Amino acid sequence: MANSTADSLDLYAKVEDLLGVKEAAPSLYAHYLLFLNSIDFDTLLDVGCGSGDFLRQIQGALEIPQVKGIDLSPLMVSKTLEQGYDAECIDLCDLNGHYDLLTAVFDMLNYLDKTQLAHFLGCVKEHLNNGGYFLCDINTLYGFENVAVGAYIVDDEERFLTVDSDFEEGEYSAEFTLFEKEGDVFKKSQETIRQYYHTVGDIAMLSGLELVQSDNVNLYDFDEADKFFLVLRKV
Question: Is 179 in contact with 160 (CB distance < 8 Å)?
């Protein structure tokens, strides 16, 4: 998520549990697990690992010999480490090593514009072993236009969050305003998080990898798929 600042990533980390992501995650993870169950591999790197929930779910089901997570948010990395998994706050392109599998879960690629996406996917290819797989999911146009946009307000006893979002000309912009309770007062923080629409063809072309699988994903019970689950291979 090179396009986002550390501040915006850390703000997102503070409110992720308020956004319904954890409730939707098992349905998305199932697509990853189904494919991973069908192949043999020893090493997995989760790029944009967040709080480590995906690593916990996958490792709990498959007992992979070596897993690692990386993220640009120090707060997210600390949460993954707390769960007992190897994690590092580093950009993929600065990382050493090669892996049988790379994953980028929950529309991580949508945080990159086209130029950043091309650079990132080049680094994905570079870090894959020959015959290795890259698994990811991206938001569909329907997901951007009908699921993500609008105003959202949620709170608990310690936090009050508003999200105002719009989607125009392939760019999604969401303004997050968070009030956190500190003693008897609330501290305000505000960040804008952006995402970009990419097609399946974009991912395949820019990655230089072979598209093996593309599945529709419907996480929020709308009429059409809000995500695509993709499997690409280095041949």
Answer: yes
Q: Work out whether strand 128-139 and strand 99-104 pair parallel, antiparallel, or are unpaired.
A: parallel
Helices marked H in 37-179 = 53-62, 74-82, 114-127, 141-142
Q: What is the DSSP letter of 170?
A: T
Taking only the tens place, the pLDDT of each residue in 148-160 is 888 999 999 899 9
Class of domain 6-140+198-233: alpha beta
Give me 22's structure tokens. 């954890």
Query: What local confidence, expressed as pLDDT, does residue 199 receive?
Result: 97
- What are the residues facing 151 on neighbouring strands? 164
Backbone phi, then psi, for 15, in 5-degree steps?
Answer: -120, 5
Quick one: average pLDDT of 7-33?
Answer: 84
Q: Range(s) for CATH 2.20.25.110 in the chain? A: 144-194
Phi first, then psi: give them for residue 87, nearest 5 degrees. Answer: -150, 150
Could you tell me which residues come within 8 angstroms of residue 144 by beta carbon, excluding any fewer than 6 positions away?
A: 167, 172, 195, 197
186-203: b (≥16 Cβ within 10 Å) or e: eeeeebebbbbbbeeebb
Look up the pTM and report it: 0.89
Q: What would the CATH number be for the domain defined by 144-194?
A: 2.20.25.110
